[in-house]
């Protein structure tokens, strides 16, 4: 293995990374400013943190290639929402420069059921 090469990622992680990249690029075209990707703390992880004018947006990206177990949007459970809120609280405590902004939780749901990817942006999802 080369010194600077990335280790092999399983297919589901590569799909997740690709979905997050697609979501970030889409949101940038919609006028949002990227702040951070994959913010992690003990409470959990937030896929994307972006700024939409005077609002700090915490974004969960969900990808589903098969709707058998529900759509991408339906896969966000109350427990996941609670973890996202706790992680957002931690971010705000450690990044005081964003304290003056309004807050919003969005979801980007990506499905690839018909061979092409469909992206659904749910603003103020919870």
Give a topology summary.
Layout: H1 11-29, E1 33-41, E2 44-52, E3 55-64, H2 78-94, E4 102-111, E5 118-122
What are the secondary-structure elements, in order, as H or E?
Answer: HEEEHEE
Helices, by number, come to 2
> Strands across the major sheet, in which order?
1-2-3-4-5
- The global form is globular
Helix proportion of residues, in percent? Answer: 25-40%
- Helix/strand-derived category reads alpha+beta
CA-based gyration radius: 15 Å
Assign the CATH class: Alpha Beta
The CATH topology corresponds to: Trna Endonuclease, Chain: A, domain 1
Terminal Cα span:
44 Å
Number of strands: 5
Low-pLDDT segments, ≥5 res: 1-5
**CATH structural architecture:** 3-Layer(aba) Sandwich
Report on this structure.
The chain has 126 residues and is α+β, with helices and mostly antiparallel strands. It has a single domain (11-122), classed as Trna Endonuclease, Chain: A, domain 1 (3-Layer(aba) Sandwich), CATH 3.40.1350. 29% of the residues lie in helices and 34% in strands. It has two helices and five strands. The chain has helices at residues 11-29, 78-94; strands spanning 33-41, 44-52, 55-64, 102-111, 118-122. Strands 1-2-3-4-5 form a five-stranded mixed beta sheet. Strand 2 (44-52) and strand 3 (55-64) form a beta hairpin. The model is unreliable at 1-5 (pLDDT under 50).
